Amino acid sequence: MKTKTILCAIFLLLSTTVVAQTSTDTLIIRNNAWTGFTFEQNQRTYTLKEVPALMQNNQQAYDFIQKARTQNTVANVFGFAGGLLVGFPLGVAIAGGDPNWALAAAGAGLIVVAIPIFNSAKKNATKAVQVYNEGIRPQQGNLSVNFGVTSQGVGLRINF
After folding, report:
1. Mean per-residue pLDDT for 125-145?
2. Backbone φ, ψ for residue 149 (5° rounding)
3. Engineering a disulfide at 143: which of 18, 55, 75, 121 sits with its beta carbon 3.0 to 4.6 angstroms away?
C-alpha cells in the first residue's frame, strides 16, 4: 500500500507543466500632472521626447508615439495660450483695473479644446507602449514532463 502511494506521488510530481518566462525590458507609461507623460524602463525614466529613439525598431509603435508627441504639442500650445488669455484679465481684475472678460472666455474655450487633444495624445502614447511591449515580449515556451507509457515502454516524456 505504501509503495502505491509513493508511486502515485512521484507520478503526480512528474506530470506537471512548467511555464518558463524570462524578464523583459517592458516600458511603463506614467501620467504626471506637471511634466505630462513619463516612461520607465529598467529603472530609467524617459520623457516623451526621448521615447521615439527606443521605438525606432518597431514601426507601428514609433508611429503611435510620434502621433502622441504631435497631439501633445498642439494641446500644450492651446492650453498655454488659453491660460494666458484667462490669466491676463484675472490679473487686471486683481490689480483693480477693468478686465476684458471676452479674453477670459476665449482662453477658457482654448483650454476646453486642449483637453480632448491631450486625452487623444495619452491614448496614442498608451497604444505605442502596448505595441512596443508586445514586440519585445519573448515567446513563452511550455515544458511538460510526463511519466507514463511511451512507444519504447514505461518512462519519462519531456515535451517543449
Report:
1. 78
2. -85, 130
3. 18
How does the average pLDDT of the chain come out, rounded?
82
DSSP per-residue string spanning 11-23 = HHHHS-EEEE---
Q: Which of 51, 25, 15 is nearest to 137 (CA)?
A: 25
The residues, ordered by sequence, that sit 6+ positions from 70 with a Cβ below 8 Å of its Cβ are 121
How many whole angstroms separate alpha carbon 66 and alpha carbon 131?
Answer: 13
Q: Are 144 and 95 in contact (CB under 8 A)?
A: no
Please report which helix (H) or strand (E) contains residue 157, including its range: strand 153-159
Contacts of 150 (CB under 8 A, 6+ apart): 157
- The cell numbers describing 132, all together, are 512596443
